[in-house]
Automatic annotation (TrEMBL):
Keywords assigned: Signal
Residue spans crossing the bilayer: none
Xref: Gene3D superfamilies: Periplasmic binding protein-like II (3.40.190.10)
Solute-binding protein family 3/N-terminal domain residues: 34-261
Protein name (Swiss-Prot/TrEMBL): Methanol oxidation protein
NCBIfam families for the chain: ABC_peri_MoxJ_2
InterPro entries attached to this UniProt entry: Quinoprotein_dehydrogenase (IPR022448), Solute-binding_3/MltF_N (IPR001638)
Amino acid sequence: MPAWDKALGVGLALLLSQAGPGSAQTSDLVSQNAFRVCADPANYPVSDDQERGYENRIAELFAEALDRELQYEWYPMATGFIRNTLAANRCDVVIGYAQGHEMVQNTNHYFTSVYTLVVPQESELSEVEALTDEALKGARIGVVAGSPPATHMARNGLIGDAKSYSLMVDRRYESPVVDILDDLEAGEIDAAVMWGPIAGPLVKADYPDLTVIPLLNEAASPRLFFRITMGVRRGEDVWKRELNSQIRRNQDRINEILEEAGVPLVNDMGTEMLAAETGQ
């Protein structure tokens, strides 16, 4: 991952040298004494209200670094998530949000990941590395409806035999990502195309007979890799700069959390895997 802007670091150091603890550097926050996180209570392995997800661990890391009490505002990450949490001033940061999304102001990205193909380890599809591979013709592939890979599948003639799963659900009551993997393990589908930061950790924890293949060779649009940031309210530039500083200082520890969870980390252009342990 590229080095962060040195000028930002110098400017922030000057700001902190002239401010008391928890004052100017977070002056635009609703809360001045807590690290208030907007999170889904049932989105394991990302986050849950038992605090088992990798975003929970990153939140703990940042609360400790900022010397603030960690507090959560739980809301399902479906329609209305930002409106009812961050925009309603009930919390001050979303730990994981795709870069460029208009509903939030993004920090610098702290990891990049990619959609993946998940297949049984012993399957003849285990050597497939791209959705253009002829070996996928006629295979029944599970895919979340409306996700970017669905466009690639349609272009490559794979959508006719596909099995579609819901995109926007309340995972307290439905879990399409688990349903996909259960169906794959049961042989009801031949393969699945899933977002790597969900597929990787779930397979690592609960599906030892499956393998996760990052889709690094998809040149056509839409892109299948995304840079993940933290999301804050628009206008809260001081808070964003503080989080950027903490991301830079704690990048190695963030990488360790993600790698331990099983998140596939790729370079900023989504073309190759990053080396384990270093994140470089």
